[in-house]
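Why do we care about 3D structure at all? Because function follows from shape, and shape follows, mostly, from sequence. That is the central idea of this module. The next example makes it concrete: a single protein chain, its amino acid sequence, and then its structure expressed as tokens.
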Amino acid sequence: MCIGEPVRIESVEGMVAQCRDRFGDLRTIDLLLVGKQPVGTWLLVFLDAARDVIDEARARMVREALEAVTAVMAGGALDIDNAFADLIGREPQLPDFLKGG
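And the structure:
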């Protein structure tokens, strides 16, 4: 399974960005799939390749969900309402291309 992680661009050279991950580590991110982006842009990355440009609110939600999963895997308690607030009170929706005709 591949899990996307939000990162914020600190510098760009060509189609490569230097970004900090949630642990503060500097990572080199390939921008070929999203195009050149300005410094300060939030990206959702998989295996050091940007797959989507996201806003800060979405980045925060993804980071909180990743932290919740990490806590559960370490045996900690989980407050579902806070960790996955965007999922409370709604049914998951399939993307249009997966919906039956």
